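Retry 2 of 3 after timeout on previous attempt. Resubmitting structure tokens to design endpoint.
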């Protein structure tokens, strides 16, 4: 995509530099997670109702590239509503609470933890811009996804 936009706006060299940075960040993320067990996660984008992301999203792809496994990847809608019971029975290692579009904050961890019965320790506030804004931000987003997954693995 970056390369095609570079052609369209006659900035081929800039686009190539960005595309190579994306490819290098992806290679690093794959190597860093190679041989390690996947981190099973739910990524929440909304609070009432609880909404997650399916496997057909940029967010899910970044986290998968870094060693994550989206518990709701198979949902037919890109942004499915999930119930507290769905969350409780998903075998989650982590729940990522995004700062956008709903601005999750630390105060929401207890609410969602209580509603789902999941331990508050598996909840992590994550930067929604880093994990959903693509294009020239993608290399930094991949690196951030790898950091997020590594934090879960390292406790």
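Retry 2 succeeded. Sequence:
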């Amino acid at each position: 995509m970056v390369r095609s936009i570079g052609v369209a706006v006659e900035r081929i060299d800039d686009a190539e530099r960005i595309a190579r940075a994306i490819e290098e960040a992806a290679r690093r993320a794959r190597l860093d997670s190679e041989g390690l067990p996947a981190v099973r996660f739910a990524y929440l984008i909304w609070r009432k109702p609880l909404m997650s992301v399916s496997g057909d999203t940029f967010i899910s792809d970044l986290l998968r590239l870094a060693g994550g496994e989206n518990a709701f990847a198979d949902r037919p809608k890109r942004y499915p509503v999930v119930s507290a019971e769905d969350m409780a029975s998903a075998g989650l290692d982590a729940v990522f609470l995004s700062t956008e579009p709903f601005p999750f904050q630390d105060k929401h961890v207890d609410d969602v933890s209580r509603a789902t019965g999941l331990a508050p320790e598996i909840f992590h506030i994550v930067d929604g811009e880093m994990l959903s804004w693509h294009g020239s931000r993608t290399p930094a987003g991949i690196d951030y996804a790898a950091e997020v997954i590594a934090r879960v693995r390292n406790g």
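Attempt log closed. The radius of gyration is 16 Å.
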